[in-house]
């Protein structure tokens, strides 16, 4: 195995700590004025991975000084009952933010649920109102993972304007909003996905490469341009360990900058979420 130049590795944990400190300061200002930002998480059923992610979000709230509450409906809750629960949280003035953990059980339409969350209380930025604003370059509450990646680009002085940016994965929570954010900053953006015929043809041209597919080690060294900045939003955990969508050890040899998994994009997602909970509380205070 060849040596790894650690100066190329983006420290997502360090930037996340900085973002959390900013959120904490903003939360303190609100609290000085008698407003307590509060996140309510809704976790349907008992998926262990979801339980872990929700626990990580609650721990972040604790670090930042945000109140957090857990709603734990059973896996067989009906869509109508879940909608009722959300309507109650929308009406509750003590609740700043509502996060319904994904994935939801198959008998519930996830988008129907996302649409029911008040767009003012949507720290995930998944409501069509917030998604629509992103599309017209009015970035308010936007999806946390791509926003966290943009913040990493800013912190590491990755120029976006005029660059070839390639996004692999076209999900509503990573790929699509990522592409919109890069386009808003004047990159030339390509979006590749599972039906793309020749993935390498695109990735080879990428000055900025963002990958979010959930396919372990999809991106190999021969698919990457020399000097590319690479952001890996994928995470797969199996019996042998935790992996990203990028074959890190080999791809780092060609990259100028690269996020590790874990410790890259993941912590940023949660840190940005914290800033959004505070933003929601600020919006409610101004209403
Ligand atoms: N409504 C909703 N909002 C979400 O934001 C949301 C969701 N549903 N469903 C699931 C995905 C997944 N997600 C992650 C956040 C942080 C890490 C993270 O911080 N990971 C650590 C590693 C954790 C480990 O070791 O497995 C890291 O990358 O360093 C991972 C995954 C948020 N999600």
TrEMBL record:
Pathway: One-carbon metabolism; tetrahydrofolate interconversion. GO terms for cellular component: cytosol. It catalyses: (6R)-5,10-methenyltetrahydrofolate + H2O = (6R)-10-formyltetrahydrofolate + H(+); (6R)-5,10-methylene-5,6,7,8-tetrahydrofolate + NADP(+) = (6R)-5,10-methenyltetrahydrofolate + NADPH. GO terms for molecular function: methenyltetrahydrofolate cyclohydrolase activity; methylenetetrahydrofolate dehydrogenase (NADP+) activity. Belongs to the tetrahydrofolate dehydrogenase/cyclohydrolase family. Homodimer. This is Bifunctional protein FolD.
